Amino acid sequence: MRGRNFCFITTPIFYVNAAPHIGHLYSAVIADAYHRLKRLDGYGHTIFSTGTDEHGTKIQDAAKKNKQTLKDYCDGMSLCYRTTFEKFNVGFTDYIRTTDERHKKAVHHFWDCIKSKGHIYQGKYAGWYCISEEAFLSEGQLTEKPGPDGKLQKVSAETGHPVEWTEEENFMFRLSSFQNDLLYWLKDDHIVQPLKFHKQLVSWIQDDSLMQDISISRSKERVHWGIPVPDNSDQTIYVWLEALVNYLSVVGYPDNQFQRFWPPDVQVIGKDILKFHGIYWPAFLMAAGLDPPRTLFCHSHWTVNQEKMSKSKNNIVDPNDMLQTYGSNGFRYFLLREGTPHSDANFSATKVKNILNSELADSLGNLLNRCCSHAVNPKQIFPLYNQDSFAKYCESDAKKLISHLTSLPDAVKQHFEAFNFYKGIDAIIASIHEANKFFEYQKPWVLAKSSATSDHLEIVLHVTMETLRVCGILLQPIVPELSNILLSKLNIPSSQRMWCHIKPLSWEQAGERHLFSISEAPAVLYQRMQKK
Ligand code: ME8
């Protein structure tokens, strides 16, 4: 049985045939932000898994090309993904590799389970096979384009990768018998988010040609790098079936404990793998008598100059370059600020710089810096709320700001829970803009010059710093390190940074707060980038 404060979140496991790019990082950062949101909301038992997909022909070929043994190659690449994610504060609780022994055990058990329930049979399979997608494709999924020799060749219509005619004796999975169960599962139209992808998935499942039984093994001769079919070492388990089981491996399947976290609450995926996660995966689970995921969050892609990132176009954006230029939290901010789940987002260095300069450096950072400066805040305090001063000096000017702030926490939470991080960030930044206007209008640097105006000064500082405190707490899922700098500068103890500490706003609860000094640490939140 699931406890109330349990949560299980996953990312895809990434192919090690190439180094990570910003698209991979984007999936990981979305899942991380959601995980942090849950932790801040009091979820005490969480699993957040990511990792690498290391079997199959693509990986065999990549290791060969790199003149490395398969093991060395996979170890190196898997570590590269892991360290990249770590550098960007992706706080996964488990990192699974499909070459882990625990995974092999889970896959074998899963195979035996669906076989014993009669969902696997042996059959001859003949069809067009796409190595890059590791899948047989139907005629409707193919098109033709000139090959390297100029002759027309059949390719996958979706990805443009070549296919080859293949005939094999394989194990087959009775996918066709799950059509109705899948449609029933999708009756709740919140299962796949955003709705656009939910609708797309339903229409695929209604299409009989996509719901044919599928081959779930390959001859060992062709794919030797993989997990063998139990009791039949001539066949290797189809990489997609094997890879999907990683989500069970991380919760300790088949040991009974895994039920504590099953089914996953949120599985973050890109739109390219919706078919595998929205059709095959739930069908495999239903075949094993297990619940399908509660939510599939399917995001769109990053493009560069409106084009797909690819090695051949030489336009891959490397997260490590982003780290050097924008810092880990700067780039996380950009990804979640500009990435929209429902449609592709375009990467451009100018856009990153403009957003970070204007929002993190000029609006947020500058406000923190100003209200902590000695010229404006000579006592170096986060002053207490004072009802009389508020009514006398600020009430009318701060109206808009306070109405913003009062509704902000709930609005942000709703947006973040719906994976609309960009909308949540937009609301936070709008409050910061309001606070900047209020600060400018009140001119605290003038008030600081005379002790006669100290009550007025303190209430202006209080309202501004309170805005920063609320926004700092709300930004933790997006930019954990920057939020920490901000909240630490204001001297907000770590124990007071949970979602439940945001409200009620302190100006309604003056008695509960204590006057405290701000920290002496420098208040530079984000260094403005200059023109090159
Ligand atoms: O498909 N923009 O791995 P993969 C945004 N191993 N996200 C992108 C992206 C882009 N341009 N390109 C890739 C696989 N992604 C399988 C998954 S899961 C059991 C097995 C992200 O290395 C996105 O999440 O090709 C996409 O689904 C994933 O990386 C594919 O990574």
Determine the strand fraction and express it as a percent band.
Answer: 15-25%
Helix content: 40-55%
SS class: alpha/beta
Bound molecules: ligand ME8
Number of helices: 18
Query: Which CATH class of the largest domain applies here?
Result: Alpha Beta
CATH architecture of the largest domain: 3-Layer(aba) Sandwich
Provide a descriptive summary of the structure in words:
One of its GO terms (molecular function) is methionine-tRNA ligase activity. Residues 8-371 form the Methionyl/Leucyl tRNA synthetase domain. Residues 397-518 form the Methionyl-tRNA synthetase anticodon-binding domain. This protein is of the alpha/beta class. It folds into two domains: 6-299, Rossmann fold (3-Layer(aba) Sandwich), CATH 3.40.50.620; 349-517, Isoleucyl-tRNA Synthetase, Domain 1, CATH 1.10.730. The chain is built from 18 helices and 20 strands. The protein has a six-stranded parallel sheet, with helices on both faces. Strands 5-4-8-10 form a four-stranded antiparallel sheet. Strands 11-13-12 form a three-stranded antiparallel sheet. Helix 6 (195-206) crosses helix 9 (274-287), helix 11 (328-338) crosses helix 12 (349-371) and helix 14 packs antiparallel against helix 15 (421-442). The radius of gyration is 27 Å and the shape is elongated. Ligand ME8 is lined by residues 12-15, 23-24, 26-27, 53, 243-244, 246, 269-270, 272-273, 301-302, 309.
